[in-house]
Amino acid sequence: MKASNHGYKKPDCVGKWTFQIKNGGQTIGTHETREEAIAELKHHCEADGLPFHGWVGQIDEIQVPCIDADEVLETLECRMYDRYNCDSDSIKFVGVTKEQLEILSDNFSTALQKWMTDYQLWPSGGICEDMEEVGDAISN
What we know:
By secondary structure, this protein is an alpha+beta fold. It has helices at residues 34-47, 69-84, 98-118, and strands at 17-20, 28-31, 53-58, 60-61, 126-127, 132-135. Strands 2-1-3-6 form a 4-stranded antiparallel β-sheet, covered by helices on one side. A two-stranded antiparallel ribbon has the order 4-5. A hairpin with a 7-residue loop joins β1 and β2 (28-31).
């Protein structure tokens, strides 16, 4: 679920390129092309006296995951177990079908979307999940 699919403006950074000097570290800047991001990474490495090495990737819009009803029910069972200190079938959701879980997941996700829209709480930033390693010792 993306905010832009629900009437919100797509973040300006989406589709641009960024880089990291340390894998999993903070991304630095936004660039129109992969090549510009690599050139800026190389410049940063040279300025810091480091060998040319890092990660580049294209920015995408943050997605709110759909709610997994199976996980919600499992959490509720654990909370009931903690509250009542009872591990019997009487506090478990026994016999729930796959179809029922799908319907409940859809209902949860629909309710979350409505809530985020009603209160203007959609996360709307950019994220770069698929970073590509680049550098002198890497075949680009």
